[in-house]
Design a protein that fits this description.
mainly beta, Immunoglobulin-like, nine-stranded antiparallel beta sheet, six-stranded mixed beta sheet, 8 helices, 34 strands, disordered N terminus
């Protein structure tokens, strides 16, 4: 039988079936997810051992798919089995430790860390006191972010001074960067998280820092670094992803003009420096024209000018290199633990002159916004959504209480209002100060916040950008309201987290405070002795270079 068009019915039907089948296959292929690694076993092994990778989306057969361990693809003969949810492969020769990925059809899985047992330290039975530090035990052998642990060994030094403890930290490599074997980077224990509780030559008690992942711990002292010791991060209710590194070079100056003065006299200047954090790293001093009086002093570099004569001038100039990463978080709020021994909740929920969280109106509004919500993450989200929807974001320089009363705020007042509302309902929160950098590489002062979730760490919040109030020529995320709760772009440089409360060098000194600047600190200048009249000019921070990985 033929159709009216003269073609057999069977042929027409077969063509339709073929086209429909082809379309379905293409549609399914387009919707295929990237492979996902659930676990690897062993996490610590040696070359020649069999590595088992379990997860999903690996493909029913290997075909052109492959894995990499620390950037090294095993030869084809090393693969023993390949199934959609399970791969077994013999571990190739490699260095100390690195990330495991599954590659399929141009897509790359999430990474998990593998450590080479040959590079791990051996337990020491008869302790030998050497020059370099040595880790014998870490107790417990696993813990969550903010948990207290003890490192026992030798050679740590009687006090910390310039020493530190470092945990493994990892960023997602750029897709355009060559895949080569490299050791994961490290993140140091932070003072602002009350990281160091006790330090002696044989024991260090500390808290696991924000941004740490399972991997090796190192103790570094002026006498050298310890061998790595493997440690597992547990209890995480979600993930933090650091990616899209940008490197900035910045320069700034302070010009001093002395009008009237007689000896003896001293002028102190607390100049902020870029702050090291989990997402802002590798702070490198490129140049400065004077040696400081005190280096790394509570987030600043302290300079001292002595016996300045009348009608003279001085200039301080600094230049730094800073690496900044985009930070994205994903968290299951239902799996949060409400218990922990970190001092952060008790300290960063206290009211202050900057954050009036005990003000009755602030408390009443905060409680009304969250209603019956008890989950800290959801409480923070509710406060954020209220701020970006209810406030008018303007350049007007309101106080925190005026911003609440008149529903108008700039980034500074809005950030402090978020912190006040959060602290009023027992959510630890801190303001963050720094710069935004636009497409023309021009910088502008900016403020945002972070709140603390026990067992997970700090989570960023930018209410001003979340409301879409971005500077001119700034690359704002296309969905700012969703993005700027929990995520942070790499178009900023941080100079302070929380307020740095500095002490005067002399109680009789005359101090200068710079409000709403690129760092939150209570002291910027202090004149002591015979300085009767002077002026200071703090330059804007200039972006002298930018490199995108």
């Amino acid at each position: 039988m033929k159709s009216p068009m003269g073609r057999p019915f069977g042929l027409k039907r077969s063509w339709h079936v073929f086209f429909f089948s082809w379309f379905c296959v293409c549609l399914c292929a387009c919707k295929e997810d990237a492979p996902f690694i659930l676990s690897i076993d062993p996490r610590i092994g040696m070359s020649g051992d069999i590595l088992t990778i379990e997860g999903s989306g690996f493909g029913a057969a290997q075909h052109e798919s492959y894995i990499t361990i620390a950037g090294i693809p095993p030869p084809g003969s090393s693969y023993l089995t390949w199934q959609d949810d399970r791969i077994t492969v013999r571990i190739p020769a490699l260095g100390g430790f690195g990330l495991v990925y599954v590659h399929r059809d141009g897509k790359k899985s999430n990474p998990l860390l593998f450590s080479n047992q040959a590079a791990m330290p051996e337990l020491v039975q008869n302790q030998v006191f050497g020059v370099a530090p040595q880790i014998n035990w870490v107790k417990p052998e696993s813990g969550s972010i903010g948990a207290l642990i003890s490192i026992q060994g030798s050679g740590f030094g009687a006090s910390r001074e310039k020493s530190g403890v470092f945990f493994t930290w990892n960023a997602v490599p750029s897709p355009t960067a060559p895949e080569v074997m490299q050791e994961p980077e490290l993140v140091e224990v932070f003072e602002m998280e009350f990281g160091y509780e006790f330090w002696s030559d044989r024991e260090i008690r500390l808290r696991i820092p924000d941004g740490a992942v399972s991997g090796n711990i190192l103790v570094r002292t002026p006498r050298g670094s310890s061998k790595p010791f493997f440690f597992t991060i547990t209890g995480r209710p979600g993930t933090k992803t650091f990616k899209e590194k940008r490197s900035y070079t910045i320069a700034y100056t302070v010009d001093i003009q002395i009008q009237e003065a007689k000896a003896p006299n001293t002028l102190y200047l607390w100049i902020p420096r870029p702050l090291s954090s989990a997402s802002q790293r590798n702070i490198t001093l490129l140049s400065r024209n004077r040696d400081p009086f005190a280096e790394h002093y509570q987030g600043t570099t302290l300079f001292q000018l002595t016996d300045m004569a009348a009608n003279t001038s001085a200039r301080l100039s600094l230049s730094y290199l800073v690496d900044v990463y985009t930070l994205e978080t994903s968290l299951n709020s239902r799996s949060l633990r409400q218990t922990g021994d970190s001092p952060i909740p008790s300290v960063y929920t206290l009211p202050s002159a900057l954050i009036p969280s005990d003000n009755p109106e602030v408390v009443a509004v905060a409680k009304a916004i969250i209603g019956r919500e008890r989950n800290p993450y959801e409480k923070a989200r509710t406060l954020y959504e209220w701020l970006i929807s209810e406030l008018q974001w303007t350049p007007l320089h309101n106080s925190v209480l005026d911003a609440l009363a008149y529903k108008q705020a700039d980034a500074y007042a809005g950030t402090l209002l978020f912190c006040a509302l959060a602290r009023a309902v027992a959510i630890p929160a801190i303001p963050v100060a720094g710069l935004l950098i636009n497409r023309a590489r021009m910088s502008s002062r900016h403020y945002w916040a972070e709140f603390w979730i026990e067992g997970f760490g700090w989570i960023p919040v930018d209410p001003c950008l979340g409301a879409g109030a971005a500077p001119e020529d700034f690359n704002l995320h296309p969905e700012p309201g969703l993005y700027y709760f929990g995520n942070l772009d790499n178009q900023r440089i941080t100079f302070s987290r929380g307020q740095e409360v500095l002490s005067q060098m002399d109680p009789r000194g005359r101090i200068t405070v710079r409000n709403r600047d690129y760092a939150l600190q209570n002291l910027w200048e202090e004149a002591i002795g015979g300085i009767e009249s002077y002026s200071s000019l703090w330059s804007d921070i200039t972006i002298t270079g930018m490199y995108v990985q």
